[in-house]
């Protein structure tokens, strides 16, 4: 049996749960309503296009750099 991380001819979508700032959530809701698409579809599209836009050397950023200023508070 093939693991989910092993590429195959037909990859199925994977469901994930993330935590985002409230203002980002509100912006996603407004944009998804304006475009007439689901929040899930819009979020997946934005993540995918952002990853495609990365330059090859940006794949090696540290985790803190990749978070684009989103800071966790203890």
UniProtKB/TrEMBL annotation:
Protein known as: CopG-like ribbon-helix-helix domain-containing protein
Pfam family, one: RHH_5
UniProt biased composition (Basic and acidic residues): 57-66
Domain CopG-like ribbon-helix-helix: 15-55
Segments for region (Disordered): 55-74
Species for this entry: Cyanobium gracile UHCC 0281
């Amino acid at each position: 049996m093939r693991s989910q991380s092993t590429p195959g001819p037909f990859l199925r979508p994977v469901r994930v749960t993330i935590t985002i700032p409230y203002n980002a959530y509100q912006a996603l809701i407004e944009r998804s309503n304006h475009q007439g698409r689901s929040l899930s579809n819009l979020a997946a599209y934005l993540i995918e296009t952002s990853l495609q836009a990365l330059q090859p050397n940006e794949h090696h950023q540290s985790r803190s750099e990749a978070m684009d200023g989103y800071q966790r508070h203890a």
